[in-house]
Amino acid sequence: MQPKPARRQKSALTIHDVARYAGVSPMTVSRVINGEKNVRESTREAVNAAIRALNYQPNPAARSLAGADLVRIGLLYSNPSAAYLSEFLVGGLDQVSRSNIQLVVEKCDEEAAEAAAARLLNSGVDGIILPPPLCDSPAVLKMLAASHTPAVAVATGRPPADVSAVRIDDFEAARQMTRHLAGLEGRRLGRGQGFGVGPVERIGQRPVQAHEPHAPRAVEVQQPVHHPRIEGAQVQQEDERDLAPLGLQRQGPRAIEALGGGRQETGFQPGDRGGVAAGGAARVGIVVGPVAEIEGDAGDPVAPGLQERPGAGADLRGLALGQERVAEPAPRAALGQRGQQRLVAHDVGLEGGGRGRGEAQVAPGVVAERAARLAPEPEGEARVGLGLQEAAVDEAGGRRLGPLQGPQDVAGDAGAGLPGRQGAVRGQVVKGQRDLHRPRRLRQQRGGQGERRRPHRSNSDSGTASAIAL
DNA sequence: CTTAGCGGAGACCATCGGGG
DNA sequence: CCCCGATGGTCTCCGCTAAG
Q: Which CDD domains does the UniProt entry name for this protein (predicted)?
């Protein structure tokens, strides 16, 4: 008979060992591990060196025990696309592993979405991610609202007021990209070929959902090139020859119009000389407009300073040139070089640029990461934009990152509204069923009196706003 | 006085083992 | 059999010290 394992492996490294090695208290080690700010840099380095030297790994069980805050997020999906789900899961798992979050996946048919949502709620999840098409399911959204469970609608066209959302801000993207391109007048950009035309036609009426199987992939334009409502983006006759290979000569104005129904809403100003149409919740970026100067050379710097930023140049090339290949998915490669949180917009970037279609497709995995990060929040919105936006804003000397917003931007203190720790609740946990129960902090009455509010941690699962809203 | 940086005390909870 | 203390690693809260 096997002897029972000791409760504690005496040889296991603990935070105390690291503390002794580094010459600090366990508390300080904990602060360093959790990325808290109030640690002197020299102390932080000493602790990190000790962690490396001892190859210390925090004990997740002990963490859960101490914090009692294991966050569980439900992912309710009915999307039949295995590829989409696969990418979505990878991104989501990346984020939850970084944030010590447990991901619970629940599949359902659209007809059975309510029952599936109820199962998730009963299992005690802290928040639910709703990829399309369930993100727009009124019944599910209503159920989540009634249970006061935070939810994140992914790629929704019309995020409800009381539900967090991760979506692409097509309009702001188009606005900023257009302005940026307009500022490149006279520069050699490159010739695009085989641009795919996203489902732009219907944008003026309502946002087109990426999952809509019948969303138009090409626009059949019947409008004249010179549209009276968008004179700032008129395409000159001579430009049309160059536009011809793009197949966009007549679609540009139309697309621009579709973006907002007119110049005022799209943000185009008199004198703007280009346009970018953005279509669909997961598809952005079609270059239109007077591209007579465009001539292809992938190696050309497309804008001053852009190549100095990792990925930024590739972003623009991938978008503006529609090349057959982009050397590497630079936006993701840049992740971490400039701080994980701040690179969200950059990270999303134009991963699809390598498809040679001149369109940017935001990877579902990246969106899922955003959603997983946002899910436990009571409300908030992360608008996922383009890497180009960051570059453009930076280049203009702006200090804002663009339209991207972190949860705290819109939700205030992300910890507010979340129940904190209270006294013990011994006796409420059924043996063998513990993992089906809510974390302790959520077992407390939401918004109850006298609860200890758990300060928002400053490690990887938070701090977004402070990093972004400069 | 304020703030940064840090440490101590005690809580967290499932499980085990010893004593009554 | 029941009760209760000990155990495990990490956390939050609170308070202290030093520096500005």
A: HTH_LacI (cd01392)
The answer, yes or no, to whether the previous bond of A224 is cis (omega within 30 of 0) is no
What DSSP character marks residue A452?
B
What is the DSSP pairing of strand A360-361 with strand A101-107?
unpaired
Domains of chain A by start residue, with CATH: 15-58 (1.10.260.40), 170-361 (no CATH)
A259 Cβ contact list (under 8 Å, min separation 6): A170, A171, A174, A200, A203, A204, A265, A266, A277, A278
H or E segment at A424? Answer: none
C8 closest protein residue (CA to C1'): A8
pLDDT at A144: 81
User: Position of tokens 């003026």?
Assistant: A204
- State the nucleotide closest to A22 in CA–C1' terms: B6
Question: What distance in Å separates the CA atoms of residue A188 and residue A295, rounded to the nearest whole number?
Answer: 6
Please, which residues have CB within 8 angstroms of residue A258's CB and are 6 or more apart in sequence?
A200, A201, A202, A203, A204, A277
| Closest residue to B3 (CA, C1′) | A38
| Angle in degrees, CA A371, A139, A447, rounded to 5 | 60
pTM assigned to the model: 0.41
Structure tokens at A306: 């852009």
What is residue A343's DSSP assignment?
G
User: Are A355 and A367 in contact, with CB atoms under 8 Å apart?
Assistant: no
CB atoms closer than 10 angstroms to residue A443: 16
Q: Is the CB of A440 under 7 A from strand C?
A: no
Q: Considering only A101-115, A263-277, A331-345, which range has the smallest mean pLDDT?
A: A331-345
Q: How far apart are CA A380 and CA A358, in angstroms?
A: 31
Distance in Å from B14's C1' to A449's CA comes to: 28
Residue whose token pair is 């946990």: A429
Distance A5 CA to B18 C1' (A): 19
- Asked whether residue A34, judged by its CB, lies under 7 Å from any atom of the DNA or RNA strand C, the reply is yes
Edge-to-edge strands, sheet with A360-361: A275-278, A283-288, A360-361
Does the C-beta of A326 come within 7 A of strand C? no
DSSP state, A321? T
For strands A381-384 and A164-168, give the pairing. parallel
Residue partners of A364: CB distance under 8 A and separation at least 6: A84, A85, A87, A88, A91, A131, A282
pLDDT one-digit tens code per residue, A249-297: 223 333 333 222 232 233 333 333 333 332 222 222 333 332 222 222 2
